[in-house]
Amino acid sequence: MSFDGMWLPAGEDPREAGTGPTRGERECLVGYLEHYRTTLALKCDGLSAEQLATKAVPPSNISLLGLVRHMARVEHSWFRRVIEERMEIPRLFRGDDEDAGFTFPDADDDLVRASYEVWEQEVAHAREVLDRTDLDKVVPTVDGEEIEVRDVVVHMIEEYARHCGHADLVREVVDGRTGQ
Q1: In order along the chain (180 residues), what is the average pLDDT of each group of 10 residues?
Q2: What is the pLDDT, as a whole number, of residue 3?
Q3: Alpha helices in 45-148 (DSSP H)
């Protein structure tokens, strides 16, 4: 395989650092979640505010910046509201004009910086919550169902994996880069 600008050369992919066989359920689940968090960051790397705001497939409003904002919302909801059982706190990007993070005003460097800060803060908080929470803990969801924390982690992996697929398509529209 050749290096085509998106595929990082061997030894330079941050997702490969310290990789090897996982030991145990927690290490496996957290490893996959971290892999996809890093993948989303890599998909957005090196782009301008305008490029991050580019929508891939009209009429969809999915953009890389929208995905970052949306995943901040998802991290916030599952880790703060569900696992910490703090349903009273308002959801991020809740208004009709924000569409769960996908809709935003004209993108500029300040909006990009603020959006990344929110996402990074929510990821950092989620890591801390997961570090101190047993996967067997049962928590109530928004609709009152009870689930285990491991179900939340599996859902987060699924959510990131799906949206990283969207990010592949958006990035290809932006500058032709694909894969990885």
Answers
A1: 50 61 86 94 94 89 96 97 95 84 92 97 98 97 91 98 94 83
A2: 40
A3: 49-52, 64-75, 109-131
Residue 61 lies in a domain: yes
Cβ contacts of 102 within 8 Å, gap of 6 or more: 61, 62, 63, 66, 67, 69, 70
Residue 45 has what DSSP assignment?
T
For the entire predicted model, the pTM comes to 0.89
Q: What is the residue range of 85's domain?
A: 25-175
> Beta partners for 63?
55
| Domain-embedded: residue 94 | yes
32 SS3 class:
helix
Question: Is 115 inside a domain boundary?
Answer: yes
Domain count, the chain: 1
Q: Which of 75, 69, 72, 71 lies closest to 128, judged by CA?
A: 75
Contacts of 96 (CB under 8 A, 6+ apart): none
| Inside any domain, residue 110 | yes
Rounded-to-integer distance, Cα 8 and Cα 178, Å: 12
